[in-house]
Amino acid sequence: MNKLGFGFLRFPMDGDRVRYDILTPMVDAFFAAGGTYIDTAYPYLNGKSEEAVRETVVKRYPRDRYLIANKLPGYDVKTYEDCYAYFEESLKRCGVDYFDVYMLHWLDQKHYALAEKYDEFRFLRELKASGKAKRIGFSFHDTAELLDEILTKHPEVDCVLLQINYLDWESEGVQSRRCYETAVRHGKSVIVMEPVKGGTLARVPEKAAQILKALDPERSPAFHALRFVQSLPHVEVVLSGMAAVEQMEENLLQVEPMTEQELELLRQAAEAISEATAVACTGCGYCVKHCPKNIAIPEYFRLYNENRQMPRHAWKQKPAYHEIARERGKASDCISCGACEKKCPQKLPIREHLAALKEVMEG
Ligand code: SF4
Ligand code: SF4
Question: Which of 141, 145, 155, 265 is 20 to 30 A away from residue 184, measured at CA?
């Protein structure tokens, strides 16, 4: 089995420019291996993601060769009509006249209240009735209780997009397992995002790497992370952003469901990773554009985690931090306005982490 979908949230870029020379062969490799599912969203990469779908997929392959999933930024909607305006713009940017899956992007308590206020589920139902969206759903970042409440009130949705990976499986914050079980109980198809937790499960600390080697010494840590979610029987698609054809080739390998013994090794690896992770940032970047000080939050958190995992390499991490800070705000520039935290799907106490990071990187 292989359930890989191509996530167009993270792909090779050079500043604001899409690296089509790398991305296009990746799309070809994906289709050649039997992949079909392409995932994008109106806000991804400031519209560059949807454009890349048009250029690499829609202009180059027949419409029945692929499925496109897209998402409405329902939290930015101000009137019911706005929903249609966003939808039409997405169709245009992607160069298609329908979407195979259309979702409300990023429902949590606050965004769900807005979705109800602007009747966005009615909008989804209308799209489905008109054939403009073949299936409807939403992506979700909150508790299993809220997911249960939404699915009870809106049985019309076909699928949900959930953050599931072996590190978040039992976490109190993300609640991967509980959300998965809730969706299954409601009979919904599950699509997975962040199976590698924004790269956290691709670059694991040494202790975890040794544990994963016992699973299969030939395979990378990311392979095991993808295999974990593919083993879940109600998971239909696993979205992964990828950086190179070689990475994609490994991700497209056929996999067997994990045995109980293998799952136990993953639990041990998760423990080792949690011990060595200072900040559970996925690198999504949603916080950055709202920061008045242009602080490079995900880049700093990545260096901070590396520092926790390899303190002996502080001589590398600190210069890298100061290099980024030449053009971006430093952690010590934070004015504690809290704008970033309102946008963080992981609900991280960003200000607190920046204050601690400042001591390490600037001290
Ligand atoms: S709290 Fe600090 S990091 Fe967050 S948006 Fe405000 S200035 Fe930026
Ligand atoms: S701090 Fe939160 S919003 Fe910012 S990149 Fe990390 S996970 Fe995303």
Answer: 265
